[in-house]
Design a protein that fits this description.
393 residues, Arc Repressor Mutant, subunit A, nine-stranded mixed beta sheet, PG_1098_Fer, Thump-like, SAM-dependent_MTases_sf
Length: 393
């Protein structure tokens, strides 16, 4: 950590150059003796990225930012605040704390938060920023999280873990047992220090695989922002032996779409099927990640268009956690059939369909964009079809 970056002159330079071409700064000699052009660019890039991802940090003076990679791996304020809503008690320890966005959110909900980060620079950066953010109930320690817990005589209301999803060669891994730390082999030890564990995993972890690797899972939360799944959260409670509930959330600019279910409800749901009716429903990304394709339809009294297409339809308009369209017409998947539509420009989505969007555009001779929406899918008769729609919500 270079404390010279926090000087008033350097901070003013960073603020004045947020909209500057960073390549010009990088290729120019730094005007500051103790701060390199590379360091200036790192601060500018990360501060710009924080404007939407971490607005509180962006709006606070003298924040020290990590490099762009570290910032990209941290939680957004939206997801951090949601995690904080899941915990109740007085104390929490984050044993993979990083830049500290989650700790900041937890500190607004709990009395004491312990920020444990093995990267000494990142630990110092977080400690500095917490002072700027006026959070006095966070203690920072530069240490390996598991080692810190083993040496500590304390117990905590919660342990929070965001395991690194990269191996020693910096390659991405997808199983919890391949992450660092491997929580699957340390659960018994962790439960000697707490009754409640919250684990964050990436969106690529298969839920059924996660349930096989973990035990005592009480809840699974799938969190998306603007239809992009950001993280999967696992609430684990010592001795919990009932069926977990799966909760999906999709944050949009003006609302939050929510849907919850249990795997037994999904397995026991009776599904009805239909040709496309007046309205077409496309589940949001969090629901698609959850795998609730049967119960979703029965819960909202909708028909599926095909067992594997995951599009739904009805004659009555309902409130639905996803995009809603009004159907205009359907066509066979052929240039001759589609020519009758007169559509030259459209947004194309595929569901259970063999061709790519690029190939579909070439075959049908249409450009991207506009107000027309086309779902290329397989219908109830196992035929490839095009559903032409206009979006309502």
């Amino acid at each position: 950590m270079n404390f010279e970056i926090l000087s008033s002159e350097v901070q003013q330079f960073i603020y004045d150059n947020l909209n500057m071409d960073i390549h010009k700064i990088l290729l120019s000699k730094s005007k500051f003796t103790d701060v390199s052009s590379k360091e200036l660019v790192e601060q500018i890039e990360s501060k710009v990225k924080s404007k939407s991802k971490l607005p509180t940090w962006f709006a606070t003076d003298n924040i020290y930012y990590p490099n762009k990679l570290n910032l990209s791996q941290t939680s957004s304020e939206i997801t951090a605040n949601y995690k904080a809503s899941l915990v109740i008690g007085k104390t929490l320890i984050d044993i993979t704390a990083g830049f500290g966005v989650d700790c900041f959110a937890f500190s607004k909900k709990l009395d004491y938060v312990f920020h444990i980060e093995k990267n000494d620079d990142l630990s110092k950066i977080a400690a500095h920023n917490f002072k700027q953010l006026k959070r006095e109930n966070i203690e920072c320690y530069s240490s390996d999280g598991l080692s810190f817990l083993k040496k500590s005589n304390r117990t905590f209301d919660w342990i929070y873990i965001d395991p690194s999803r990269r191996d020693k060669d910096n390659k991405k891994v997808f199983y919890l047992s391949d992450c660092e730390p491997d929580v699957t082999t340390h659960l018994d030890f962790l439960f000697s220090k707490t009754l409640n564990i919250l684990i964050k995993t990436g969106p690529l972890l298969d839920l059924k695989v996660g349930l096989r690797e973990l035990k005592n899972v009480k809840e699974i939360h799938i969190v998306a922002i603007n239809n992009d799944v950001k993280e999967v959260l696992w609430v684990i409670e010592k001795e919990y032996a009932l069926e977990p509930i799966i909760k999906t959330l999709n944050y949009k600019s003006d609302t939050v779409q929510q849907f919850s279910f249990k795997l037994s409800e999904e397995q026991n749901a009776l599904v009805s099927y239909s040709q496309p009716l007046t309205y077409i429903y496309e589940p949001n990304a969090a629901i698609l990640k959850s795998g609730s394709f049967q119960y979703l339809g029965t819960n909202y009294n909708l028909h599926k268009i095909h067992p594997n297409s995951h599009l739904y339809t009805s004659d009555q308009l309902i409130d639905f956690p996803g995009r809603i369209f009004k159907m205009k017409n359907t066509y066979d998947y052929s240039k001759k059939s589609f020519k009758k539509s007169g559509i030259k420009k459209a947004n194309v989505t595929t569901r259970n369909f063999p061709d790519s969007v690029i190939n579909i555009r070439k075959k049908l001779g249409i450009k991207d964009g506009g107000e027309n929406y086309l779902f290329c899918t397989t219908n109830i008769n196992d035929n490839y079809a095009i559903i032409s729609c206009s979006q309502i919500f």
